[in-house]
Fold this sequence. Notes:
This protein is an alpha+beta fold. It contains 4 helices and 11 strands. The strands form 3 sheets. The protein has a 6-stranded mixed beta sheet, sandwiched between helices. The longest helix has about 100 residues, at about 205-305. The model has no long low-confidence stretch (mean pLDDT about 85).
Amino acid sequence: MLQSEIQNLPSSSELPCSDDTPVDNEEQNFIPNFLLFLLEYIWGERQDWFFGVDMAVYHTTGKNVRVPIIPDGFLALGVERRKGGESRSSYVMWEENNVVPILALEVVSQTPGGEYSRKEALYSQLGVLYYIIYNPRQFGGEGRRILEVYKLVNGRYNWQTQEPVWMPEIGLGIGRGIRNSGGVKREVLYWFDEQGNRYADTEEELTIAQQRAREERQQREQEQQLRELAQRQAQLERERAEVERQLREVAQQQAERERQQREVAQQQAEQERQQREVAQQQVERERELREQLQRELERYRQQLGDLPES
């Protein structure tokens, strides 16, 4: 994409961070957050990765750049862990040097979300290397597998049949495991090493991860509220500027009317002055005419003398 084209695209501050769609089940929230927690434990010293949970991914492959795709979880490599030292509100690819997420995770809910059709096609078009569908309750029929990991090969996703699936481009494997927490057993997704050993977790670390997930959710909500407040403030500023512009126009129109009135008054005064001058000139001509007649009469009298009385 050309730099001039990127400059015309909206910034992350102008774009919604999610579609605010509530999740249908607990797995949709817990599974990606648990993977994020484990990744922070495994890659704690690395700063070249980002794992987003229920976050909008904006791209330029669709008809409208303002319409994102929102995975339940995704991993991008070669980007800042915290962009500019701050948290992201969304993942905007043209602000990330067009780095495509290398992995996308969808946790299937009871409400169809296009995991096996629309989203798969879009992830393929974007070039997401690994597409993972986790369907623990096998929504959509008994023929659905609980965990499906696909790798993009020549533009098509190929199902990786082994489990856990080793992903050499990432340096991690992914698969299922049973976790016992407080006497309650549940199936979750784990990261694995190349030998097929899963990375362990502790109850304390999980509690920290859950707390961190809550804090991050609250932070996203606060950031969204701040963005909405800023947008409202900007709207008020635009409205105020529009009112000021209208007032200026009214003042300019009033000044123009006053100027025209002054011009009319000046023209009227000029006409009255000219009329006075004409009247004065007429009076002067009548006076000169009387004086001339008087002189002529006096001259005749001198030439003829006084006429005898009859």
